[in-house]
Specification:
By secondary structure, the chain is an alpha+beta fold. The chain has 10 helices and 7 strands. Bound molecules: glutathione. GO terms for molecular function: glutathione transferase activity.
């Protein structure tokens, strides 16, 4: 784990001393948008027109944020338009690497060794963390975006003219509902598990755990009487929740100590994860082996032996 300082790689763990044991996620830095005609999006510069073969996605199969982008690539039929490289599950002193074993592909674009080298290609004086996902533009040779929440919105609509796929996971009429769901779920669930897991004081850990389980209880209640978070319509809010829930029992319960209840203990949440998992194309984006090896193997301050638990059996992934 580390970061780039003026374009130079430094091996440092998260600084929680200055925040009294709390994990604070840094904001992402490449915030341009691919749009149908190349006009500027809500942030950043224009010039990123949706074109077949122009963009490349760097992901980790372990990472819940990158996982969102893989799901949208699949559901929005972008497989043939946007190529993908998968980093190695272990993220150690060199950060994400392009070591090629198992389902890691290496760097298909440049044959580089480390993801930080991709960031330096885009900005030779880059400062900050080197995270996945990364959406790369082969035409301008730069990073379009490294913010998953925005990449999925681009995938949702920018390429529709090329794919003919007009499924909409962010329908206009539901924007306010989706934003409200996203806000709570991001803060207490998606990022909540990280706040608990990366806390370095008892107080900071407990401060994250209480709202996390309040939100899971609230979601269980909600999904007991409706199919999706917005009722009958499957939206991006569901996919954003799914990538955390599908990892929950495998890694967050044990490794991040989010252990008041498991997803398996919530009947409605379990059925919901199972139903989303069985949406055609989604199961092939879920790699429990990478997920377990990444978390248990990469965070040596939390799990110094690096031993990866064999269980649990994940009933919600069964047919
Ligand atoms: N805001 C980013 C967060 C991405 C993120 O934190 N990815 C993690 C992997 S799960 C990462 O690459 N961490 C490396 C680091 O922090 O050094 C997004 O949603 O795209």
């Amino acid at each position: 784990m580390g970061m780039l300082v003026d374009g130079v790689w430094k091996d440092v763990w998260y600084d929680t001393k200055s925040t009294k044991g709390h994990f604070k996620r840094t904001t992402t830095s490449f915030r341009n948008w691919v749009t149908a005609d190349g006009a500027p999006g809500p942030t950043g510069d224009g010039g990123f027109k949706a074109e077949a073969g122009r963009y490349h996605l760097y992901v980790s199969l372990a990472c819940p944020w990158a996982h969102r982008t893989l799901i949208f690539r699949k559901l929005k039929k972008l497989d043939d338009l946007i190529s993908v490289s998968v980093v190695h599950p272990l993220m150690l002193e060199n950060g994400w690497t392009f070591k090629t074993d198992d389902a890691a592909t290496g760097d298909d674009l440049f044959g580089l060794d480390y993801l930080w080298q991709v960031y330096v290609k885009a900005d030779s004086a880059y400062n900050g963390r080197v995270t996945v996902p990364v959406l790369w533009d082969k035409s301008q040779n730069t990073i379009v975006s490294n913010e998953s929440a925005e990449i999925i919105r681009m995938f949702n609509s920018a390429f529709n003219g090329l794919t003919g796929d007009d499924q909409d996971f962010y329908p206009q009429a539901l924007h306010a509902d989706i934003e409200a769901l996203n806000d709570r779920i991001y803060d207490t669930v998606n990022n909540g598990v990280y706040k608990a897991g990366f806390a370095t004081t008892q107080e900071a850990y407990e401060e994250a755990l209480t709202p996390l389980f309040q939100s899971l209880d609230w979601l269980e209640e909600k999904l007991s009487s409706q199919r999706y978070l917005c009722g009958d319509v499957l939206t991006e809010a569901d996919w954003r929740l799914f990538t955390t829930l599908v990892r929950f029992d495998a890694v967050y319960v044990g490794h991040f100590k989010c252990n008041i209840r498991r997803i398996a203990d919530y009947p409605a949440l379990s059925a919901y994860v199972r139903s989303l998992y069985h949406v055609p194309g989604v199961a092939e984006t879920v790699n429990i082996d990478h997920i377990k090896r990444h978390y248990y193997g990469s965070h040596k301050t939390i799990n110094p032996t690096g031993i990866v638990p064999v269980g649990p059996e994940l009933g919600f992934l069964l047919p």
